[in-house]
Amino acid sequence: MDNLSIFLWFVVSLICFILVSFKKRYSYWKDRGAAYVEPTIPLGNLPLLKVHFKDTTDPIYKQKKPGAPFMGAYFFRTPVVIATDLDFIQRVLVKDFSSFNGRGIYINEKDDPLSENMFSLDGDKWKSLRAKFSPVFTSGKMKFMFTTVVDVADRLNSTLSETLKAKSEVEVRDLLARFTTDVIGTCAFGIECDTLKNPNSKFRHYGSKIFEEPLHGPLMGLLMIQYPNFARKLRLRLVQKEVEDFFMDLVRGTIDYREQNNIRQNDFMDLLIQLKNGEFLDGHSQKLGRITFGEIVAQAYLFFLAGFETSSSVMVFSLYELALNPDIQEKARQEAETILSKYEGKLTYEAVKEAEYLDQIISESLRKYPVAVNLIRQAIRDYPVPGTKVIIEKGTTVLIPVYSIHHDPEIFHSPDVFNPDRFAPEQIKARHPVSFLGFGEGPRNCIGLRFGRMESKIGLITLLKNYQFKPCSKTSIPMVFAEGKPILTPKFGVYLQVEKL
């Protein structure tokens, strides 16, 4: 047998082995009697084309079977659970949380220290940090920072007013990202970023870099989650090194300056320093244990990331829908004006709390445009699925397709219609408790949801009482999302016609 024949025999044998291996692996859900979507070699149920992360799970969700708690699927060779039943989802997130308290997100403490943040951590490390940081987001702490957010909102008003002197069509996504960057820079770090005046500030530069220039696309991200040990051997990281250096230097400089000059500012950084030094948090009678400098930086990075991007997205999509629905916009404006008249025109903490219709607008915006399009959980032990003979094995990833649930016509009638009345109290009571997952649910819900709602409401009230928003020739109708981004991002920005009232 010549060398060519041997080589061809080897190649054919290898291909046959790979095909048999895939076929055997792809019988996983069928062998367990679970409802599943037929996979194809080698991607499983992942799409061939570059799509948004929501589009990896939405086609699977739409094939859900009546009575089945989930659809079995495959990401490459790995079996995954795509949750489709709300009762099952409630079990995963709340009732049986102890079996699904992990996220299984890739962490590399050695090469990528910012990845060791509360969002990504699992097990005892997550539990300990969550307990320590929960007091940071109480209503009392929100009141401390309220005035700071209002001051930044006033600067937002001034900036937009100046912008309108030169043009009436405004790209509001960048404007609102600068607003929330200034808010989180001041509240988390006590630093006047002044991004509203200077769009090229360092804070804005690095905030944009995190989302606009991710190191890896969605498929590579999935591979890192499924093969974390291999990824760590390759020293793969999620956060750019220059972003890490910026936050390390920023936090170190802030802590050193405050401690050397005995400065207290009643912001997030104050509370982090108290935890670092093992002190009693203001208003709490128990010590919560020390945190390390590395843990401070990782959490400060997370606060910045969540605080500027999620809140700006909520406001952007809210303004977009208000521009397309002038009747809803006017109703929100009238509510704001009525409430402000009770408080002598001043935007107070109590006034913002009374803006219930604006709360409904924010919730409806998060329903139609959820920041997290999928929630990720991981089974930390074998889990017998109630009412079935199926066992979800330890280590299996469970994906909860938030975008798909929020756009399911069986749950939300006419889901493409923007209707804040869906979140009137009686409507909420009539729906399943986990039909809306804008802030997640259960013990791993968004820890900063109070701050996020407060920040968004202050920004929107400030804008609505001073300006009217309309679609213009550059407005994308319908909204088009950028592929390859971890969150819902308008592909072409959000341009609106803005008129001063």
Automatic annotation (TrEMBL):
It is a peripheral membrane protein. Keywords: Endoplasmic reticulum, Heme, Iron, Membrane, Metal-binding, Microsome, Monooxygenase, Oxidoreductase, Transmembrane, Transmembrane helix. The keyword Membrane applies. It is found in: Endoplasmic reticulum membrane; Microsome membrane. One of its GO terms (cellular component) is endoplasmic reticulum membrane. Its main location: endoplasmic reticulum. SUPFAM superfamilies: Cytochrome P450. Its cofactor is heme. InterPro entries: Cyt_P450, Cyt_P450_CS, Cyt_P450_E_grp-I, Cyt_P450_sf, Insect_CytP450_Detox. Belongs to the cytochrome P450 family. This is Cytochrome P450.
